[in-house]
Amino acid sequence: MSIGKTIYNSIFKRSSTFTLAFIASAFIFERTLDSACDTIFDNINKGKLWKDIKDNYTQ
Amino acid sequence: MSFPRFNLKGKMLKPSTVSGYFRATSQVVSNQLNVSNNAAILPKKKVAHIPFQGTSALSLAKTLPNANLSVSCGPAASLQVRWAHTDITVPNFDNYRRNSTKDPTRKASETEDTRKNFTYLLAGGLGAASVYGTKNIVTYFISSMSASADVLALAKIEVKLGDIPEGKSVTFKWRGKPLFIRHRTADEIAAERAVPVESLRDPQHDNDRIQKPEWLVVLGVCTHLGCVPIANSGDFGGYYCPCHGSHYDASGRIRKGPAPLNLEVPYYEFAAEDTLVVG
């Protein structure tokens, strides 16, 4: 209950902090989504990507 | 039920008595049966008069006055008409309430923060999603304006300086324009450095236009009307524009003729000792 009160008073009460909060969360969400998608892509294509076969062609 | 308003209290059910209830028929035709007086005596029915109790919406509506309303007014009669609203139970809205407000003994202020937080969290999530979507749409449209990969690949050229002999100017094509790279001799360098800056139309010292004294890199576009000057000609030993007679010196500066500015020096850098990268 007190955590909810703290969150409400510090973030949601003012429009400025509310806007900052959801812009920051959009940034975090984008970075997380991008890195998660890259990881899935790398796992599916493991062994076919240039970074995996680079050692066979360069000294 | 109150449907049969008429009852046949202990009366004989005979054709002569029945005919009174069916006045629409003009004539009662007696059957051929010989009915004796004692043939059908119905047992006396007990009729209980139960006061009317309407419970359904239809029966309640039927109790409402709907025609020939008359309101009497006076000291003894009340004007107040009592409608059927005091005995209707308050509807239950529990399905539409949040769980924290279902208990009527709890204060609403105790659960206010969590309820507000939930609502604002939903609004904030929507805001974050729309910021993310807007950012991607804007990025998509702005990146369509940027140069494509093939254009960027042609934006730089790499020149091997060892192939250019001293005293010679070589022309390359760079971004659709001619590019002059001149290997200057020691005499030319000394001559250009000695030129007084104040005497120039576009005052610029030779040191401001070069990185290494032996190499002059300028765009081969005359600053007058855009012709391509000819190397190693003109009065000053540099470049000469054949269109309207502008003379440039070995540092690419305008010395004579109609051109207002010196030849443009592009951005370039020496990637290695004898490799020049322009762009």
UniProtKB/TrEMBL annotation, chain A:
GO cellular component terms, A-Z: mitochondrial inner membrane; respiratory chain complex III
Compartments it resides in: Mitochondrion inner membrane
UniProt keyword annotation of Ligase present: no
Main location: mitochondrion
One example of a Gene Ontology biological process annotation: mitochondrial electron transport, ubiquinol to cytochrome c
Keyword Electron transport recorded: yes
InterPro entries: QCR9, QCR9_sf
Topology within the bilayer: Single-pass membrane protein
Domain of life: Eukaryota
Keywords: Electron transport, Membrane, Mitochondrion, Mitochondrion inner membrane, Respiratory chain, Transmembrane, Transmembrane helix, Transport
Assembly behavior: Component of the ubiquinol-cytochrome c oxidoreductase (cytochrome b-c1 complex, complex III, CIII), a multisubunit enzyme composed of 3 respiratory subunits cytochrome b, cytochrome c1 and Rieske protein, 2 core protein subunits, and additional low-molecular weight protein subunits.
Family recorded in the similarity comment: Belongs to the UQCR10/QCR9 family.
Reported function: Component of the ubiquinol-cytochrome c oxidoreductase, a multisubunit transmembrane complex that is part of the mitochondrial electron transport chain which drives oxidative phosphorylation. The complex plays an important role in the uptake of multiple carbon sources present in different host niches.
Protein's UniProt name: Complex III subunit 9
Organism encoding this protein: Dendroctonus ponderosae (Mountain pine beetle)
TrEMBL record, chain B:
Name used for this protein in its record: Cytochrome b-c1 complex subunit Rieske, mitochondrial
Keyword check for Phosphoprotein: no
GO molecular function, one term: metal ion binding
InterPro entries: bc1_Rieske_TM_sf (IPR037008), Rieske_2Fe-2S (IPR017941), Rieske_2Fe-2S_sf (IPR036922), Rieske_Fe-S_prot (IPR014349), Rieske_Fe-S_prot_C (IPR005805), Rieske_TM (IPR004192), Ubiquinol_cyt_c_Rdtase_Fe-S-su (IPR006317), UQCRFS1_N (IPR015248)
Catalysis performed (reactions): a quinol + 2 Fe(III)-[cytochrome c](out) = a quinone + 2 Fe(II)-[cytochrome c](out) + 2 H(+)(out)
Keywords: 2Fe-2S, Disulfide bond, Electron transport, Iron, Iron-sulfur, Membrane, Metal-binding, Mitochondrion, Respiratory chain, Transmembrane, Transmembrane helix, Transport
Domain Rieske per the UniProt entry, residue ranges: 186-277
Top-level taxon of origin: Eukaryota
Source organism of the structure: Dendroctonus ponderosae
EC number: 7.1.1.8
Cofactor(s) it depends on: [2Fe-2S] cluster
